[in-house]
Amino acid sequence: MRDQLKVMSTLAVELALKTVLLPAWQTESRQVAVDWNPTGVLIDRVRNGERGDVLIAIDEPIENLVEAGILRAGSVRPIARASFGLGTRSGMAMPDISTPERFKQALLSARSIAYSQTGASGIHFRHVLERLGIAEAVNAKATIIHAGFTADQVIAGEADLAVQQISELMSIDGIDVVGPFPDPYQKHTDFSAAIFAEACSPEAAEDFLDHLSNGKAAAIYSRTGLLPRHQVAA
To answer: pTM for this structure?
Structure first.
């Protein structure tokens, strides 16, 4: 049995886990190694044969991996819901994105907008640009990264605005959240955790999922830009 729990996790819950949940787990003499990446990257690696003890990712691919027998049936725990938003450098003027028209104007007015090629936020944002009819104009000056935190590009001066899950924007020091995408361009993303069928430490993995889905964890999700799943209406 491996002494260290191996977790493959989406970036959306990184702030909640790194600031409170992982330190609380590790103070109980249990160790965990986390591989942080967008869900798309994680799922590709799992499909190519990589395994761990726990996977934290978007619901739909989690369900698909359960059906494929890669994740253990009955182990799935709903964790949190994330929303897409825009971030900018702290101290900069905050554009008004409260309505669809103002949102569109803010996107067109930005010198450059950073978004992820492989993350759920970037995939959705490309569809939003098409719906708004401004894909060509925005992409001509966009800063597109393969994976990681888009707000880093704002800090580096490469972009004025960053597109990502609000919880991910909050992970970067020096970034203020402008706000969520306005309806009808918002899309909520639900995340769950599950145990690999071939987990080396299944009992520790079960305990870890308990740790991620209890009432204390829910309070941490709320403070880090996420909505605990038990607060989501059925």
So the answer is: 0.88
